[in-house]
Amino acid sequence: MNSPVFTAAALFLVFAITVNAQSTASSRPTGMPAANSKPALAPTAGQASLGAAKTAPIVNSLGMEFVAVPGTKIYMCRTVTRVKDFRSFAEATGYHQKGGMFVLKVKDGEPEEIEDHHATWDHPGFAQGENEPVVGVTWKTAQAFCAWMTTKEARKYRLPTDQEWSAAAGHGKYPWGDLWPPPKGAGNFADESLAKLAPGNDWVLVAKNYDDGAMRTSPVGSYPANALGLFDMAGNVWQWCEDPYKASMNSPDILEKNAELKDERNSRGLPYRVARGSSWSDVEEYALRTAHRLGVDEDTPGDLNGFRCVIAVGEMPLPK
Question: What does pTM read for this prediction?
């Protein structure tokens, strides 16, 4: 392998067929809640006004911040779900991951995405801090987290729909704007830091000399938020959405660039689920576009995928 390029589409294709980073927890990013701040509960389902903004977000019992998304009836979490958020769920429910997950490792001097039967969300094969995105979570497990939060707080938590995610991401060609390549600090993509996993290999990077400072995942809030105050709408981890994946969600030119995106179902005939936002391993221009969708097996855990929650206004919560 002379030019290691670990694109999300290629890696997830491996997942569907075959179904020691340096990052540490950083100090609290600007705009994120202090560890000892008192959480303010979100409005109950059915509230008429969606008024929470990035300057005054709603904060739930885990310290997750939510802001209103114009044109929708949701509050979206400003960050993807963190390790510490998921740990609260796992400890409260007794959740224990089985079967392992796919992890990028260096084998014989070259990086390779392989199935690690011992890897789990809390031991994904590389070091993570509590404020980094949880990885190795399937679509179904993300749903279970949302159901737990719904019961816990008596307000409806769920994954965003594809349309809601688009509304939150904005109208730019890329989540950071319309210019390519991404400017310095735009997000966590395939970069000089990732290339340090296998020195000497001819890596293809998202841009020449681009270095976001993270080999793999990075603490949430490390890079600038978008206009709504949402972090990591590009890079870090792919984010599950509610919807089944349809090839027509992608533009014809994206489908031409990656024919694998024409596949809508796995080998068992079950529909893929939509994932948005790209990850720390992405390098292709089309994969970082705001409008790009990935179709992923809902039962596939990997070190590229995480999730982001929303609070839905007007949707009945599950009974306690």
Answer: 0.85
